[in-house]
Design goal:
The complex is a heterotrimer. Chain B is mainly beta. Chain B has a single domain, classed as 3 Solenoid (UDP N-Acetylglucosamine Acyltransferase, domain 1), CATH 2.160.10. Chain B has 1 helix and 19 strands. In chain B, strands 2, 4, 6, 7, 9, 10, 12, 13, 15, 16, 18 and 19 form a 12-stranded mixed β-sheet that branches. Chain B has a 7-stranded parallel β-sheet with strand order 1-3-5-8-11-14-17, with no helix packed on it. By secondary structure, chain C is an all-alpha fold. Chain C has 4 helices and no strands. In chain C, helix 1 runs antiparallel to helix 2 and helix 1 crosses helix 4. Chain C is globular. Classes of the chains: A alpha/beta, B mainly beta, C mainly alpha. Chains in contact: A-B, A-C, B-C. Chain B: InterPro entries: Hexapeptide_acetyltransf, Trimer_LpxA-like_sf.
């Protein structure tokens, strides 16, 4: 069916509007996410630039929380939560990304490096029933879906924590930690280098 | 003979279920959708007859990510709340399969283990066959193929073929029980 | 059954790969992925009564059937045989 208006080709207009929507929508969403992050992290002492929260996050800060530049928090079925108890320190390096349902809780110290990736439903807490010990996650670490990182653990740079793992011991750099309790194996054993 | 108000509420429930599944390309007979179901992404989602999607606990997520992604739920499939199916190529759930709460099924790892994390590894189409039971919080990674009637214990991580009738569990996964044949 | 046959049987039964040579790299041939490697390690520990240290989980020890067999034999020699 053609348009009755002689000079307006309706499909072309629709396509243009669609293209406009596709280009504007992500930027609008990002703007909203950055405003939301400003609001959510209003009680945080130090928040970097361009922090974006695409969904709800529950933030409780009674200690010292330091968030780096360009963090991304993705929204989803469960909100992420960042909890920092009195006298504790929770720090997150720049460009780290969080999927939904990530729970970070610091009673003493939790430190996350730069450019890390956190998938959904991850639990990082430095206190269990018995003791409190600081957790350090170094740069470029990838923690996959459903992993749990126990108190006192240090995860080395560029390491990967596999899905569903429970990490109870330190993970050296360039290592894959997998299983319950997690065991460390060399990433060279299971993955080819995909280039720079 | 059913009283009038009961049959009315049943009809309304059916209409509401269809409304919640409006983003699916195909929906079979009498779907039951409770709570929230999120169907998003540019791909296609096909739903068979008599499926039960119980998203009251947490939303069920059916994410067909790209325009040629496909998620197929067979007849009589039951999915509990918080289950998340993310297909970049395809995820097929066979008839009568049951997926527990907060399971995650993905046919692509999205990031390579080493090297450039922004490259995307290839997808492996996932098939969950007829009559499979997947326990809650289980994780089905690319390469997982659950054959007819097998059972995955809660919290298990799977990335390989599981033969028919076998029960697997634990981390790392191992065979807990085989179906007695004959 | 020899060590080689037991390990080969486990790999074939578990990962459904039929045609692979003794020296084929598990990784480069795509025979075993990371979760599979963990299952192989658990199998070795359980079936051969050896304990693998985390630092021993490297390609030199585990990336082909020949290497796995040699590694298991080395581990068994170091251990006092029970029974």
């Amino acid at each position: 069916m053609t348009s009755r208006m002689p000079f307006v080709r309706v499909p072309a207009v629709v396509a243009q509007l669609e293209a406009l929507r596709k280009s504007v929508e992500p930027r609008a969403q990002r703007a909203v996410a950055m405003v939301r992050a400003r609001w959510l992290f209003r009680a945080v002492q130090s928040v970097g630039h361009n922090v974006a929260a695409y969904g709800p996050i529950s933030v409780h800060n009674a200690g010292e929380m330091v968030l780096g530049d360009r963090l991304t928090f993705v929204g989803g079925m469960l909100p992420s939560s960042l909890v920092c108890h009195p006298g504790a320190r929770l720090s997150i390096g720049e460009e780290t990304q969080f999927n939904y349902g990530v729970s970070l809780e610091a009673w003493k110290s939790v430190s996350v490096g730069a450019r890390c990736m956190f998938a959904s439903f991850i639990r990082v807490g430095d206190r269990d029933g018995h003791h409190t010990a600081p957790i350090v996650i170094e740069d470029d670490v990838w923690v996959a879906h459903g992993a749990i990182i126990m108190p006192g653990v240090r995860v080395g740079a560029r390491s990967v924590v596999a899905a569903g793992s429970i990490v109870t011991q330190d993970v050296p750099p360039d290592t894959l930690a997998m299983g319950n309790p997690a065991r460390n194996m060399s990433l060279e054993l299971v993955a080819r280098d995909t280039g720079s | 003979m059913m009283p009038f108000h009961q049959s009315l509420s049943r009809e309304l429930g059916g209409l509401l279920s269809r409304l919640k599944l409006r983003r699916c390309q195909e929906v079979g007979d009498s779907p039951t959708v409770l709570g929230r179901v999120w169907i998003h992404g540019a791909g296609r989602v096909h739903v068979g007859s008599r499926v039960v999607l119980d998203g009251r606990l947490a939303p069920i997520e059916l994410h067909a990510m790209s325009s040629d992604s496909l998620i197929i739920l067979g007849d009589d499939v039951a999915i509990e709340g918080g289950a998340s199916l993310e297909a970049l190529s395809s995820i097929t759930v066979g008839p009568g399969a049951r997926l527990g709460a907060f399971i995650k099924a993905m046919d692509n790892q999205h990031h390579p283990l080493r090297g450039n994390r922004h490259e995307r590894p290839p997808s492996v189409p996932m098939v969950i066959a007829e009559g499979v039971t997947v326990g809650s919080r289980a994780i089905l990674l690319p390469g997982a193929q659950l054959q007819k009637g097998c059972t995955v214990a809660p919290g298990t991580v799977i990335s390989r073929k599981i033969p028919a009738g076998v029960t697997v569990g634990g981390a790392p996964a191992r065979v807990l029980r085989r179906e007695v044949t004959g | 059954m020899s060590i080689r046959e037991r390990i080969r049987t486990f790999i074939v039964d578990t990962f459904f790969v039929d045609e692979f040579g003794d020296d084929d790299s598990f990784l480069r041939k795509g025979l075993i992925d990371s979760t599979g490697m963990m299952e192989l390690v658990a199998f070795l520990e359980q079936d051969f009564g050896i304990k693998l240290e985390d630092k021993e989980l490297v390609p030199e020890n585990l990336d082909s059937l020949t290497r796995v067999v040699a590694f298991v034999e080395r581990k068994q020699q170091r251990l006092p045989q029970v029974g």
